[in-house]
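# nightly structure sweep
# worker-07 picked up a monomer target from the shared queue
# config: single-sequence mode, recycle default, output format = structure tokens
# input follows
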Amino acid sequence: CMQLSQEVVEHSPLYIVSKREYYDTTSVQRRMYAMQQFENMQVTYNMPTAHIYEGAMDIERLIWSLKEMVRRHESLRTSFGIVDGKVVQYIHEDVLFKVGVESVAEANVDAAIHGFVRPFDLSVAPLMRVKILKVNDEKHIILRDIHHIITDGTSEGIFWDELFKLYNGEELSELKYQYKDYAAWQSEQEGTVRWQEGEKYWLEQLSGELPVLEMHTDY
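# output follows
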């Protein structure tokens, strides 16, 4: 019979970072921060969405739920800056978060959506904007624009799931960890033997002449 061997890999656990003036950022956040400095990249990392809500909406309840999400998730109260040449993140206890509400005719919805997206200043939190378009009493459109530096595809699913749970009166369990805890963990991994081995592997994989991607594009 075949004998299977398993490699035992030790992982250092996450821990809750103590409160401080500013915190480490992840490698992904540092890359996005650098790219944001180029003029032609000003809205490249914006992640706008438009959700159609059909039926009667309790607008005040939705606004409360949005503000509760900002209170709950530190990423939605995060801004970025440079300290000693390093990109850092600031977690704010309170931020000025306003939800716009606008009545709009059906014929003007597209214009309202396209005019919603604009650049973010990464030094000013929150890096998220929300506007509710009221088309009529039975149709509303929730516009939200958020910068990729504080969210990703998985986070987006969590955001909308939790938002509508709050709106529907459900209670959410308290969060044990926040993103800054992961950022601190990742910073500690940089420079370790395993990290260096991974870096060496990818430098070898991407060495030499690389093929040019030929991807079909739209617009």
